[in-house]
Amino acid sequence: MIVRLGPTGAVLANLLGQYGWNIAAIERDVDLYYAPGAVHFDSELMRIFQFAGLAEDIGRTSESFKDMDLLLEPGGKPVMTTQIGSLDRHYGYPGAWRFHQSTLKGHFHQGLKRFPNVTALYGYHPASIKEHADAVEVGVECLATQTKQIVRGANGLGRVLENVRSAFRGAQPQKTRLGVAA
Q1: Residue range 130-176, pLDDT digits in tens
Q2: C-alpha distances out from residue 64 to 42, 61, 68, 71, 108, Å
């Protein structure tokens, strides 16, 4: 279960979908937010997009760049010019990319449709969470109709949650299993 399909949740759903995980992704918004909240990503993120099978589409709607001007007002004279990215393709892609956030998120959401094992629920929010030894149940509410349903996540999630809790309480064996430095 993934709660919220912002950039992080949507990329995670794409990555897990490739591995055959059954994913229910809950997003309270029905439509993508139109205004950009970010405008730049680097070559390391493009590698993640490549791994998720989205780099080709994202590359068509994004623009690589190297030089950036800092303006204090629209159309004003630059107060500083700097090089933010390199075009040497150190990680296989140019070092800096401009993008429109809603377009980028659209790629993430369209990518989810490739996987029959990923279900995206738009217009829903989690209303309750109940843990069991072998699973987690999430009560999900449709914001339009106020109807509720239960989504049950298994695959040892309860054990993973306990390992995470133990790691943060300082239990040494769990830290090793999670790859957290002692």
Answers
A1: 888 777 888 889 899 888 888 777 654 444 445 444 444 444 433 33
A2: 9, 10, 11, 20, 19
